Amino acid sequence: MRSFLHAIVFLLVSAGTVQAGYDQSKDWFHARDWRERVRIQFLLVFTGDYASQVDGTFGRLTYNALTTFQKHRDFTPNGVLDDEQMQILQRDGLDLVERVGFETYKDPVSGLQLGVPGKLFEPSTQTPRGHLWRAYDNSIELETLQVSAEETDYAALYKRLTDTSDGRTVEHKQFRNDYFVVSGRQDGRDFYLRMMKTSSDSRGFSLAWQARHAVFMDRVAVAMSNSMTFYDGTDEEKLDAVTSAPGLQVLEEDNSSDPLPKGARKDITGRKTSSSGSGYFLTTEGHIGTNAHVVGNCRSLDIPGHGTARLVKADTENDLAVLQLDSGKSDHVAQFRSKQPIVRGEEIFVIGYPFAQILDNNLNFTPGMISSLAGVKGDSRHFMLTAPVQPGNSGGPVLDRTGAVVGTVVSRLDKFKTLKLAGDLPENVNFAVRGKLMAEFMEDLGLAPSYNTITNIKSPTRIDEEASQYTVLVLCRN
User: Fold this and answer.
1) CB under 8 Å to 91, separation ≥6 — which residues?
2) Closest CA to 328 of 297, 348, 349, 307
3) Which of 230, 330, 361, 402 is the most buried (most CB within 10 A)?
4) Is the confidence at residue 13, as pLDDT, over 80?
């Protein structure tokens, strides 16, 4: 019995040590800005230590990649890279980048932008669907392609590409509403393909190589998959300028007690006296989810009806933020959709506080539908909705017919910029960040998301009644 108790104590101490190492690694990783985190993950892909999504977020796979990298080079595997280890990571990762000539390539024919190992291929040739690259001995082949929905719809294309007839073996496949991945072997060669879905077509790439190249081509395939994004041949700067964040509406503030002379604050660039957005309770401990742009550069935060709050952390890349009520308590919290993916055409509801200073802080509940599974330039972090979104809606929840959170309102298509660019005024073209990103952000902060396990459809009145108890107005005082 004594030996058994000693074993239990050893396991508990070991588990605590592992968790402490994980937490230390997470803190180190999050201390870097998003671009640096993405760069680290890409370098780990090229060293062969990471084979997952490059998104700048921290999880078990990133932690395992960091510690594996350290083990392979006889460092203490604690998941924290010092300056020497960072230099070695950069040296070893960029070694493969240089050897294969991995560079960004824009293909307007297939509508893709992705990294291509250019040194491995002869010059490409254009095809009706995209471009084709082959190595001088045909041992490696890359093809970009675009398939219209009229020719083959997304689901049918996935079914066709996962067919295991004619000597084709599928070793891995993943299907989502916005993209799918298939890998395996065919005709004696390894293959990897990724296709993403747009409103009118499917587009992606297919990569195949002989087994003797597997030592580096496995890494190249993962890097290409993570680098792939939408491209339509237009000026990216103009596309980026089309969206605007509907959340920072200036409110008036009493400045009679301001110690500075009148007009003295005009030299402070971008200063606003106060602004508003929406948010929703995430935990009973008083955590609130909203957009990063709603709470950026705030001197203080006020949640009317609940008291003051502070910023816990902001994810500026995904435009998400988590706040903490100073009172530290909430009786009602939002629940996220559990597993079922969102689908185009499903009914949703937006709730929040638009035009707070005009509508006297009235809560607004509006129905709509999901019109696209991606945002501008095919950004799979977002989805498009038809529910009207106004200044002040930013940070509010998007709900499905069961009342579960499927997204966070983030932006709308700027009408006047779009008119100048496209010659027409858009109607109800608004965007939300996918709900899973807020849930994952919570987990990274050590918070436990609440999930909705009820699948019964509720009436809009019931959804409004429940959501109004956890949706809040967020006032930012500058």
Assistant:
1) none
2) 307
3) 330
4) no
